[in-house]
Design a protein that fits this description.
With 284 residues, this protein is α/β, with parallel strands linked by helices. It contains eight helices and ten strands. The chain folds into two domains: 105 residues, Dihydrodipicolinate Reductase, domain 2 (2-Layer Sandwich), CATH 3.30.360; 129 residues, 2-Layer Sandwich (60s Ribosomal Protein L30, Chain: A), CATH 3.30.1330. The longest helix is centred in the first third of the chain and has 20 residues.
Length: 284
């Protein structure tokens, strides 16, 4: 059985924080470039060109893509044949949080986490604790995926428990409406993550995990791939446009993930991501 230690995990997460904040994913940049090339509204085309230029400057000059450098969401997939070890008794989650704190400090990234949500809302000054989602999987590796999630787009995410008699058009129309409600406040063009099935909490988690998929990789099930396409087309037909100023490009992509659910339930969650869609993955 392979072993992996605290410092290896912490160092990997630190690097992910800095890279995600400064370098837009290749598929996201390509989607922006394609949108700019196809945009028919001059003002929208200009805004998309500015977003592309912003990404290029951020990477070349090591300036964060956005001033909101996000809440750190970390997905951990640990293989059954790899063991986390630490002689000081610290946990894998401790290592992830140490990496977040170091990455946000070293990268001069804004720290946006408050320790208590209601009482006094004092900043932890480390951007920790991170939101960590853990899965045990097969193999002898650990996969770490970090998403820097901005507050504005996260605030526009929604969940709904549909009746099990709802059809795909009901789902499509609701997701499109959620995107319309998000409007300019969530910094379009969006990336739209959708979870269908599971239960209350799993559905919401799926909607966020779906955002880790490449924008150019449709769902492997044609039924859901067609729904992804229909949602994207209808959202873009809304005319909201880049930054809410009008245009053909309100969203860059829609990704759906599904899980089995109870016969009496049909949960659906939408997680909205802004154009600064920052996530990175490493496999150790």
């Amino acid at each position: 059985m392979r072993k992996i230690d605290f410092n290896t995990i912490a160092a990997a997460v630190e690097d992910l924080c800095i890279e995600a904040a400064h370098k837009l994913q290749e598929d996201v940049l390509a989607a922006l470039q394609k949108a700019a090339a196809n945009e028919s509204v001059p003002q929208a085309k200009g805004i998309l060109s500015q977003l592309i230029e912003n990404a290029q400057i951020a990477e070349s000059e090591m300036i964060p893509l956005c001033q909101d450098t996000g809440l750190a969401i970390v997905f951990v997939d640990q293989g059954g044949n790899i063991q986390f070890v630490d002689e000081n008794g610290r946990t894998l989650f401790d290592a992830v949080n140490a990496g977040i704190a170091a990455g946000y400090e070293k990268g001069f990234l804004r720290k946006s986490v408050v320790a208590d949500p209601l009482k006094d809302r004092k900043n932890t000054n480390t951007n920790t604790p991170a939101i960590i989602h853990y899965r045990a999987v097969a193999g002898d590796k650990i996969k770490l995926s970090l998403m820097a999630k901005g507050g504005g787009c996260e605030n526009k995410s929604q969940f709904k428990m549909f009746r099990p008699t709802a059809d795909k058009e009901d789902i499509i129309n609701w997701v499109v409406d959620v995107a319309k409600q998000a409007g300019a406040n969530a910094c379009p063009p969006f990336v739209i993550g959708v979870g269908i099935g599971g239960d209350f909490e799993q559905c919401c988690l799926m909607s966020k995990r779906s955002l880790l998929r490449r924008l150019d990789e449709p769902n492997s099930d044609k039924f859901y791939a067609d729904i992804e396409r229909d949602i994207l087309e209808k959202v873009n037909a809304s005319g909201i446009g880049p930054q809410g100023f009008g245009g053909d490009t309100t969203a860059l992509g829609c990704m759906i993930e599904t899980e089995p659910c109870h016969i009496a339930s049909l949960p659906v969650a939408v997680n909205i991501e802004c154009h600064s869609h920052r996530h990175k993955t490493v496999i150790l």
